[in-house]
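Hi W.,

Here's what went into the run:
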Amino acid sequence: MNEVSVLIGGKAGDGINSAGSMIAQLLNHLGYRIYLYFEYPSLIRGGHTFVIVRGSETDIGACRDHVDFVLALNEETLERHKLQYTKDTVIIANGDLVKNAAYGIPVKAILAEEKAPPIMGNSALIGGFAKAAGIEWEVVDAVFRRHIPKGADQNLAVAKKGFDSITTVHPITRCKNQPLALVSGNEAIGLGLIRGGLDAYLSYPMTPSSGILHFLAEEKERFGITVVHPENEIAVILMALGFAYAGKKSALGTSGGGFCLMTEGLAFAGMAEIPLVLVVSQRTGPSTGLPTYSGQSELQFVLYAGQGEFPRLIVAPGDAREALNWSENAMNIAWQCQVPAFILADKTLSEGIYSLDREAAGNLPGTGPVLWDSNTPYLRYANTESWVSPLAFPGANDAVVKVNSYLHDESGITTEDAEITIQMAEKRLKKGRTMSELMQSYEGVIQSGMRDASTSLLCWGSTKGVCEEAALELGLRVVRPIVLAPFPVDQIKKTLAGVKRLIAVEENATGQLAALAGQHGMYRRQEDPAARWQTLHG
Amino acid sequence: MTRELITSAQNTWCPGCGNFALQHTLKNLLSDRLREGKSLDDVVLVSGIGCHAKIADYLNINSFYSLHGRAIPAATAIKLANPALTVICCVGDGDAYAEGLDHLIFAAKRNIDITVIVHNNRVYGLTTGQYTPTSPLGFKGKSTPSGTAEYPINPIELLLASGGSFIARGYTRKMEPLKALIKAAVDHKGFSFIDVLQICATFFPAADYYDSRVYDLPASDKLSFETACTHAREWDYNSDARIALGIIYERSIPTFDDRMITLRLSKEVRERALRVFCETRT
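Here's what came out:
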């Protein structure tokens, strides 16, 4: 199968990410499906950063161990990634900065000849890569003109000099696929929210969720949405609730630390039955942790965050297409059931770039919220058969819309009456049952890999890509719940039929999905995770 | 349709509580509004948590009974979501000056077109008598039995520093001026703030203290920032000095809600925009 991996390394601020995006587009236009991984330290300038662009004939969501091409913008790139090089790896370098590279490109001289600014230096390397990989100049020309409309001519002149300075050493083959949109997981989440009818996005910047804020703020006119960056995460969640109370679909984005500040607002959403979509993109914790690295240690946190008992939806998409679909679903379900709905992502998904087949994303189930018919006096928390009360918004004629963080009666007025306390607790929890029934119409668990294998991986979220590829090579099944709450017990049982051994794969130390599955009798630990840690690390 | 302005919820404020005066004033303003032929459907009351907040249960209008300290961000969003709404925040001094101080400063800084009425009784009532950010130095509450060891903050000075465009002080025992003040605040286009000195009959019965010190400001003084600063500093919530009532500062500047407006698009237009966006990434 056709496949190629390219690593671009240098200092933070060297334009590594945009060089990676251009190479991804070159491969995209040769029919490759893309996954791009971007690794960088938590600083603005200096420090080592790198991008791995992987192209494959089929959909992917992970990198391989080795790389076929290296574009080195500094000496450190050669040292640091040694383990990923094979004897066939083609190393193209900025010849001014890296000595002893097989293919050194005289970037400074090229820029001087073209009177181009230093920022265009990477174009020389991209040109060099294209020639080394046997990519026709026409493709380079078309991709540059399409994706760097400003200054395309000068960039192309620089790229051509790089192109001409090298010979083709490792030709790659064209694939049959049509090029697709390349979007990050964060952008896919934003697009899904927009499809779900997003009116307002609220966020206080926090890696790795900030990409959604930046994307939606940049595109707010294009999509007709309001984007607010408030004073802190507490304001973020209260503003999201204020928008929803006034009838506007809102969503917020954050990471673990920011979400900690939101838990009181979350419980308010649960008590006041205000629809809310929360994107929590995980990084390595606890606390400030490793801001720019991935992790999956917040599942148990979002499952139980907030005081008191109330239903919630948690979905963990595994790639950009799922992020698009399930962000739309989350918005629909939040409004249909008047619950908080989480999109649980992580750095790998949020900042990874994927080929997104917009057409294959398709149309999803989901109806609008239940609205007040204005025939009876309005009661915000009216008892109904589904336990979901019809919505009206302030401004509606003759509706007094009262929401309340206190225990309240049907009209939304505070009460301490014992009977009503019981009724309202029942209402909230039975509404959760209504949501569980609704979730039967969604494909909440994905089975893949070798479907008849009796050993299965159990994973969630962005490890989809690596688990599916590994499972195919090792002859394993993969069972991956996208919906994590309400836990899709029946769907998981079905996908696990015939499985004798279940191997949990998670980016955390304690097995958080495994624990959740264990609560439903689906997973039995063979050893204590702490003991396992001992064996692994002494 | 005729509307009762007060709900059937049982009122549980103490006899002599300053909250009655504020509720009565708001109720009168609402009935004036009805008499003028305006609807109450587009009025939203947002409250925090504390004795003051029960007003959300008692007034029969749209209400968002928020968390302690968190009325203002919700009110900000309600106004952004639907600028046609009149949004009034009733908050306590614990809400506005302790738990949610950041939101108060940002609302003033943004000039969001909402009205914040602080029921400033200078004591925590609902939690049965602890000091607040505006209690005087040495205040003996249940958490500070030997007296507080910190000075109060001066909210008027704070709001002047935060860029507020309508800053006023009222007093619950001066109901007619209070009504005029709240009406002016609601009519003000932009962020309006009223610190209302409120009697807590149980834990801080300061009526005699206020009665002998309050005076009305001349309306003409409100236009000068320098004069406003002088009035703000005259009484610092701790010293023994005259206490100015009325509009301390007012100016007209663009509002956050006007600046943040984005044109809404139909579902079809959005779907097309989405396709075009995906094209740019191909």
